[in-house]
């Protein structure tokens, strides 16, 4: 939901989807962004269980997120640095046993071509996450991800012609195609740790100043370390995601300035399907996620 192509630039400059606005542009000047996402959704399988083993529980899900991000050029070099910290609560009305809270962050160094935001854009990311029982009462898991990847986008104007290369093509771009691919090493406590390879194509289309649509496909292969030299879990994961966004008109708030002060409110309607294939039968599962979220962002 943070990767939609709204024109106001109040989303964090870090995302799995290459078509997130500004992701391949130089960060000038230094910028902080504060974001709030309040989603309500239907989740068909929060426990991520195989239906043959009893299946999951149909439930409502409430998962608010708050985050602060920072982006800046790296001296006069063609690199951008981005840092992000966020907190999230996951609550399930019919499956409270899987409620949990998490705190995460990342630090990213990315090459950007200052004259072409459609060029190949390689990067490295370090992203830790700490998981807790509800209301952060006690820690139960830590994961630390180190990823090496590259983004590539193809931007088109309202006449579906390729946008001319420049350092910032956001104003001219109506249709954008992109792909992110990266390899990841995850260090987990408790074990096991794992290796993963991701391929994530995406597309965005600006329908109007108020409406836009985003499509993405999260595909990965994850191989876990073996336990004492024995059995090792291996998973394939696929998740198509579709998001329709409505940016609330500034006139509803009296003025453009008031809309900015209120965080440029937007409603995101999203549907996603998860499918995980595993050599551990209990982890061979599928799940649907359908919901709506209120999204707010402040840039300063």
Output the keywords.
single chain; 300 residues; mainly beta; Porin; 13-stranded antiparallel β-sheet; 13 strands; 2% helix; globular
Can you offer a commentary on this structure?
- The protein has 300 residues and is an all-beta fold.
- Helices cover 2% and strands 55% of the residues.
- It has 1 helix and 13 strands; from the N terminus they run βββββββββββαββ.
- Strands 1, 2, 3, 4, 5, 6, 7, 8, 9, 10, 11, 12 and 13 form a 13-stranded antiparallel sheet that branches.
- It is globular and about 55 Å long.
Topology:
Blueprint lengths: L30 E13 L15 E4 L2 E9 L5 E14 L7 E12 L9 E12 L6 E18 L18 E15 L4 E13 L4 E14 L9 E14 L8 H6 L4 E13 L6 E15 L1
Quickly count the domains: 1
Name of the CATH superfamily: monomeric porin ompg
Structural class: mainly beta
Shape: globular
Q: How would a textbook summarize the main sheet?
A: 13 strands, antiparallel
Please tell me the CATH architecture by its name.
Answer: Beta Barrel
What's the total number of strands?
13
Gyration radius from CA atoms, angstroms: 20 Å
Say what the CATH topology is: Porin
Order of helices and strands: EEEEEEEEEEEHEE
How large is the count of helical segments?
A: 1
The CATH class name reads Mainly Beta
List the uncertain runs: none
Distance between the termini: 21 Å
Mean pLDDT over the residues = 95
- Helix content class: under 10%
Strand content: over 45%
């Amino acid at each position: 939901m943070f990767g939609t192509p709204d024109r106001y630039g109040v989303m964090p400059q870090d995302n799995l989807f290459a078509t997130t606005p500004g992701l391949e542009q130089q960060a000038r000047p230094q910028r902080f962004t504060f974001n709030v996402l309040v989603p309500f959704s239907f989740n068909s399988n929060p426990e991520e269980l195989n239906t043959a083993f009893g299946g999951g529980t149909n439930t409502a899900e409430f998962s608010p997120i708050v985050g602060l991000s920072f982006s800046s050029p790296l001296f006069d070099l063609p690199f951008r640095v981005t840092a992000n910290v966020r907190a999230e609560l996951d609550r399930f009305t019919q499956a409270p046993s899987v409620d949990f809270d998490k705190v995460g962050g990342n630090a990213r160094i990315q090459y950007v071509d200052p004259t072409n935001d459609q060029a190949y854009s390689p990067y490295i990311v370090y992203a830790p996450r700490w998981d807790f029982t509800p209301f952060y009462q006690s820690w139960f898991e830590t994961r630390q991800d180190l990823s090496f990847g590259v983004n590539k986008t193809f931007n088109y104007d309202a006449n579906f012609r390729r946008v001319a290369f420049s350092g910032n093509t956001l104003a001219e771009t109506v249709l954008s195609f992109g792909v992110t691919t990266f390899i990841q090493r995850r260090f987990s406590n408790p074990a096991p740790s794992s290796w993963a390879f991701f391929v994530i194509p995406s597309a965005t289309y600006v329908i109007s100043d108020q409406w836009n649509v985003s499509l993405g496909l999260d595909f990965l292969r994850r191989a876990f370390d073996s336990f004492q030299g024995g059995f090792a879990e291996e998973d394939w994961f696929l998740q198509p995601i579709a998001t329709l966004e409505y940016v609330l008109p500034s006139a509803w708030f009296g003025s453009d300035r008031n809309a900015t002060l209120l965080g440029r409110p937007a409603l995101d309607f999203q549907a996603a399907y998860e499918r995980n294939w595993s050599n551990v039968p209990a982890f061979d599962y599928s799940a649907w996620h359908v919901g709506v979220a209120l999204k707010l962002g402040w840039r300063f």
